[in-house]
């Protein structure tokens, strides 16, 4: 039976030479583990960075690959190799978005999310969709009003990218409330949204949540 194709991701936490052997050992063990599951590794992505750091070349290359090859099979040593802290949730969100199946050598099985992780990823998906809809709606409304007032976009290409001044940031307050009720602090909520490409400060999160409680008499 012909082996199916898969990829692997390896990570060590530092760039010390002593970690080179650890990285090599991870790669060898993952190749063996993938083979035992009937897969042949078609590519291995590697990093020498902390799991809290999301600016990892190997990770970014991996995500680019998975985006272009939806439904891929990924082998890892254990889930901490993907990342730690809030960055881990951001990466898991993208892996789920790209329909990636993950096999963890530490559990000798397909990686399954716990109830808390599943709940957070579901909320993050809702947040992403909510933000996209708001952004698109604002663009459409603004353009419609501008055209009604005589604006001709074909004559204003040179003005693209210029700042229009600061405006109130739109935030999905329902999801912030849900995350707060689950025990996340403002910094964790802000970090999670920022990691997904929605830069909202913890001060903004706190202010909007406080406004929400006042409006609802909480």
UniProtKB/TrEMBL annotation:
Cited Pfam families: Resolvase
A molecular function GO annotation: DNA strand exchange activity
Domain of life: Bacteria
InterPro entries assigned to the protein according to its UniProt record, in alphabetical order: Resolv_N, Resolvase-like_N_sf, SSR_resolvase
Gene3D superfamilies documented for this protein: Resolvase, N-terminal catalytic domain (3.40.50.1390)
SUPFAM superfamilies: Resolvase-like
Resolvase/invertase-type recombinase catalytic domain sequence ranges: 5-150
UniProt family annotation: Belongs to the site-specific recombinase resolvase family.
Name of the molecule in the record: DNA invertase Pin-like site-specific DNA recombinase
Provenance organism: Kurthia zopfii
Top-level taxonomy: Bacteria, Bacillati, Bacillota, Bacilli, Bacillales
């Amino acid at each position: 039976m012909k082996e199916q194709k898969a990829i692997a991701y390896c990570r060590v936490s530092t760039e010390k030479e002593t970690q080179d052997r650890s990285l090599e050992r991870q790669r060898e063990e993952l190749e063996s583990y993938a083979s035992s599951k009937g897969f042949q590794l078609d590519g291995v992505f590697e990093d020498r960075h902390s799991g809290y750091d999301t600016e990892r070349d190997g990770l970014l290359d991996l995500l680019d690959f998975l985006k272009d090859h939806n439904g891929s099979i990924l082998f890892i040593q254990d889930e901490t190799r993907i990342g730690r802290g809030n960055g881990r949730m951001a990466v898991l969100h993208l892996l789920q978005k790209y329909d990636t199946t993950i096999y963890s050598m530490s559990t000798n099985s397909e990686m399954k999310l716990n109830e808390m992780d599943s709940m957070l990823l579901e909320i993050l998906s809702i947040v992403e969709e909510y933000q996209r809809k708001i952004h698109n709606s604002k663009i459409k409304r603004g353009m419609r009003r501008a055209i009604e007032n005589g604006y001709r976009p074909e004559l204003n290409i040179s003005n693209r990218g210029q700042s229009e001044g600061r405006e109130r940031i739109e935030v999905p307050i329902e999801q912030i409330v849900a995350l707060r009720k689950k025990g996340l602090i403002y910094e964790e909520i802000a970090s999670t949204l920022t990691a997904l490409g929605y830069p909202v400060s913890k001060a903004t999160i706190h202010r909007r949540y406080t406004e929400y409680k006042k409006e609802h008499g909480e």
